């Protein structure tokens, strides 16, 4: 007898709004509209190469401080309560956009990014304090070097020599568009929830945490 074929089981779609659903979270600094516009211009200019790159949605571009991953709702609630006080210990400051680059290196590009310059010690201090809070709250923290940047796109496959060379050459050609600096105000830290979909990730704001008012005297700012 021929065995009775079984119908393939249908996977139930993930209900992101269920009360017990894990939240995919990250901490980031939102970018002003002019910088989002630059991300859009650069992404559009580079996308005509038909590279195997997944380009970001410019309206959701941000400066990531810490990626938390899937988080139980109760732990997310504890973080939401503790976060404002830590962020408020840091005065607001400003960065500026810089040139283009890739991670981890030009021979094996995996991420194409727009650089950021400015008072690195202030950003590093904010990043470090947030990491301490996360570690004390039970989150695993990446101890690698913090390199502030704005992601433009992620290479889908390992880049061979030809693709790596093409990306390096094109980034050099687009450097003029990226070199005119735009201000990036670091005035708040946002806890985002990332919801994955076929059209790409969309981001929901969980909570906004403002930094303290900047010192009135520039000498007190330590710049």
Describe this structure in words.
- The protein is of the alpha+beta class and 223 residues long.
- It has a single domain (28-212), classed as Cyclic phosphodiesterase (Cyclic Phosphodiesterase, Chain: A).
- The chain has helices spanning 33-47, 73-87, 120-136, 161-173, 175-179, and strands at residues 23-30, 53-55, 62-71, 93-105, 108-117, 149-155, 183-186, 188-195, 202-210.
- The strands form two sheets. It has a five-stranded antiparallel beta sheet. A four-stranded antiparallel beta sheet has the order 3-1-8-9, covered by helices on one side.
- The longest helix is centred in the middle third of the chain and has 17 residues, at 120-136.
- The termini are far apart.
- The model is unreliable at 1-6 and 8-16 (pLDDT under 50).
Produce a short descriptive summary.
The chain has a single domain, classed as Alpha-Beta Complex (Cyclic Phosphodiesterase, Chain: A), CATH 3.90.1140.10. The chain has five helices and nine strands; from the N terminus they run βαββαββαβααβββ.
The CATH topology turns out to be Cyclic Phosphodiesterase, Chain: A
Which term fits the overall shape? globular
Helix count equals: 5
Order of helices and strands: EHEEHEEHEHHEEE
Residues in helices, as a percent range: 25-40%
Low-confidence segments, ≥5 residues, pLDDT <50? Answer: 1-6, 8-16
CA distance, first residue to last residue = 82 Å
Sketch the major β-sheet: 5 strands, antiparallel
Rg, Cα atoms, Å: 20 Å
Domain count, please report it: 1
CATH architecture: Alpha-Beta Complex
**What percent of residues are in strands?**
25-35%
Strand order of the largest sheet: 2-6-5-4-7
What is the CATH class?
A: Alpha Beta
Fourth CATH level, the homologous superfamily: Cyclic phosphodiesterase
Question: How many strand segments?
Answer: 9
- Coarse structural class: alpha+beta
């Amino acid at each position: 007898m021929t065995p009775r074929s079984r119908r393939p089981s249908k996977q139930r779609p993930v209900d992101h709004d269920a009360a017990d659903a894990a939240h995919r979270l990250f901490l980031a600094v939102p970018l002003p509209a002019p910088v989002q516009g630059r991300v859009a211009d650069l992404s559009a200019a580079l996308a005509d190469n038909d590279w195997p790159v997944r380009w970001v949605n410019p309206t959701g571009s941000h400066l990531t401080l810490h990626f938390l991953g899937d988080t139980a709702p109760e732990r997310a609630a504890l973080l939401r309560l503790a976060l404002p006080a830590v962020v408020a210990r840091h005065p607001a400051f400003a960065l500026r956009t810089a040139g283009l680059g890739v991670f981890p290196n030009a021979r094996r590009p995996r991420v194409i990014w727009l650089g950021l310059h400015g008072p690195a010690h202030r950003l590093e201090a904010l990043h470090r304090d947030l990491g301490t809070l996360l570690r004390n709250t039970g989150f695993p923290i990446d101890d690698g070097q913090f390199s502030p940047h704005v992601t433009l796109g992620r290479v889908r496959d390992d880049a061979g020599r030809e693709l790596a060379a093409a990306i390096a050459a094109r980034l050099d050609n687009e450097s003029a568009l990226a070199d005119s600096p735009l201000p990036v105000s670091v005035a708040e830290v946002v806890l985002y929830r990332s919801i994955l979909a076929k059209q790409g990730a969309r981001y929901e704001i969980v909570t906004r945490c403002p930094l303290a008012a900047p010192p009135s005297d520039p000498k007190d700012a330590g710049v």
